[in-house]
Amino acid sequence: MIVSGSSSQSLSTVLATEMDESLAVVEYDRFADGEMIVRIPDADDRAIVVASTTTSDAHVELLQLQNVASRRADEVVTVLPYMGYARQDKSFDPEEPVTARAVARAISTGTDRVVTVNPHAEAVAEFFDVPCETIDASPRLAAPLADLTDPLFLAPDEGAIELASTVRDAYGDGETDYFEKNRISDTDVEIRPSDADSADRDVVLVDDIVATGSTMATAIEQLDAPRSVSVTCVHPVLARNAQLKLSAAGVDRLFGTDTVERTVSVVSAAPAIADRL
Ligand code: R5P
To answer: Which of 134, 170, 244, 251 lies at a CB distance of 3.0 to 4.6 Å from 139, suitable for a disulfide?
Structure first.
């Protein structure tokens, strides 16, 4: 039985069909003081809790779903299509927490295993106290791309070069390169141009996450007269005015997977998740 978090209802529906599993009709509610409460009316031997922790509320809701599921099922599998706080995987100051470790430990208390999609760093899997497997949904990002002219797949930083290569390989043609990025703050980045010539080419920028859009917008500024610019990512977080920022930067096409449910989430990560469950 698939037990969905409120932020992952579309993905859970596709996953239930893909796996031929029943889908619990979870109720999400709030008390007068604002505290959340969930109800799972159905029960089964195995509960697959699917919840992207895109907000702090989503974290609490996940713990609630796991709590009910673990009292009603023999096995609980937790799928984190998008693991929030995963980028806080290091502490640069003893005064600051390693939040990814803290949330991973909390999530571990209500499940037998965890499956997560393209975490920002693979090492995050080691923060869980139960087995955690990671899935790469990036090959699916090639599906909406068609008939590209002299394609150039660019990673906005060195860390995303593998993703750009994976999407290029899945598309079947094109060059890959990356920019050198220096992060100044959570909303500002500095990017140096790549060596690849972008003139008159269909450029596809690939990253794991687009959050504020600053990385992608700054990368696009470095391009020289491209024929078109597509931006794609596994997790389209699109915080604040990211979409406007990207449109103003000249993005022709923006899309991602449904690990984070936005209007641009045109590719489903469900088949890749189903393969692992
Ligand atoms: C960082 O290394 C990540 O891979 C992304 O590049 C980053 O999270 C994107 O954030 P933003 O859209 O806020 O620039």
So the answer is: 170
CB of 218 within 6 A of ligand 1: the answer is no
**Is 89's C-beta closer than 6 angstroms to any atom of ligand 1?**
no
Pocket test for ligand 1, best of 178, 180, 207, 244 (most atoms within 8 A of CB): 207
| Active site annotation includes 181 | yes
Per-residue pLDDT reduced to its tens digit, 77-113: 999 999 999 999 999 889 999 999 999 999 999 999 9
Total residues belonging to the chain: 277
